[in-house]
Amino acid sequence: MTDFLPKLLTWYQSNARDFPFRRTTDPYLIWLSEIIMQQTRIEQGVPYYDKFVRVFPSVYDLAGASEEDVLKQWQGLGYYSRARNLHSTANEVVEKYAGRFPETYDGLRSLKGVGDYTAAAIASVCFGLPHPVVDGNVVRFITRHFGITGPVDKAGVKKEIMEVLLNLMEEVSGLDSGSSATELLRPTSGSLPKPGKPFASSLLRLAFTESSPGGDPASVPDATEPLSTHETSIFATSLLRHFATYTGPGIFNQAMIEFGAMYCVPRNPDCRACIFSDSCYALKHQMVGQLPVKKQQLALKPRYFNYLVINVKGSDGLYFGKRSGNDIWKGLYEFPLIETKEAVSPQKLSSSPEWKKLFGRNKVEMISHTGDTIHILSHQKIITRFYNLEIKKPSETFGTLVRAEKINGLPVARIIEKYFEMYPMTGDSLV
Ligand code: SF4
């Protein structure tokens, strides 16, 4: 997972919003906050949380209150059956568990009104158990960053998301911050426990880069080897700072939710300034606006567009055709296109009948091609690849040669527009 965890946890340390329930690991308070926040946006829920804590400071106070009192405090949040469940669960905790919340995920899950999400939140924050919480914010962030492109309501995709989270959780859980930090900084016995190795290596790398800008990457110490006194003194401060960000599964869960809610937002996230811009699948494949994929996109028909960007030696333009017929983007201009039924290799494309028909005996040099770009329409998924070709002789079979300075004025589909954003025309060539 490379530097994912250190980056996330460091970000969380500096950017987390300060809410009262983030300053506690008391299961009663965490449970209360979770049930209230299910009803409303977090900022609007905080005054309700404060009021509940003031009026019912412990689970005994809540259990001992009348249902009417509880409903009164709940007033304005709506969905009153939740308030009734809250009250009855408080009674269950007092009567069945002597006022102590169960300390296992299954025990928590068995309480009335406690679903997967709330059980995972309490288990991780209060008891340090490795149970990921999965809400809309986490799903958006995970599917974008790790390139999970299936519909998120499908069982297999849910499983995939959970697996990614569990792997990350395992890395986080494999490291006990206090003792490992001390261990790591001890020159003679600085090796880290095995499960935490990838995470520890990432921390070492981050700390090394911070402490020695421009330093030789080969000199980054190995997480399995004890650190020398010299190494320790060089980046001890930075290393400790990174370790300080780590406190376990609860912080990991909160950081995931917070990053999804605050940074990897549904519309127009600031990807260029994002700490994950170099590793994010959606950004790399221009799919930020398309992920996560929801149910209604299940029936999308895939189409494979191989666009040929034809440069004729010595000319200062590119070839375009106008789309016609009863198909998408009718009337818009595009590069010469070979549509295939499936993704094809450059070799297969250049030996296809369409290619031969287009180029005949003309000698074609394939300079480069882009990766696949996915463009989602209401019923279709257009998977596009652009081939940058050079040929010696112009030909009418390619379409119309449009001079470089005129290309900007052509009506084109967004997918072609994006191509020119990435590879702008300069004079007579593409860069
Ligand atoms: S680069 Fe954009 S899409 Fe990717 S994680 Fe960051 S904000 Fe989210």
Describe the structure.
The strands form 3 sheets. Strands 1, 4, 5, 6 and 7 form a 5-stranded mixed β-sheet that branches. A 3-stranded antiparallel β-sheet has the order 3-2-8. It has helices at residues 4-15, 27-37, 42-55, 59-64, 67-74, 80-97, 105-109, 116-127, 136-146, 155-173, 177-185, 197-211, 229-244, 249-262, 281-284, 346-350, 353-359, 404-407, 414-422, and strands spanning 301-312, 317-322, 333-334, 337-340, 364-369, 373-376, 380-391, 400-403, 425-426, 429-430. It has 3 domains: 4-129, Hypothetical protein, domain 2 (Endonuclease III, domain 1), CATH 1.10.340.30; 177-244, no CATH class; 299-430, Alpha-Beta Complex (Nucleoside Triphosphate Pyrophosphohydrolase). Helix 2 runs antiparallel to helix 8, helix 5 packs across helix 6 (80-97) and helix 8 (116-127) crosses helix 14. The protein has 431 residues and is α+β, with helices and mostly antiparallel strands. The chain is elongated, with a radius of gyration of 28 Å. It starts with a helix and ends with a strand. The protein contains 19 helices and 10 strands. The chain binds iron/sulfur cluster. Iron/sulfur cluster (SF4) binds next to helix 9 and helix 15.
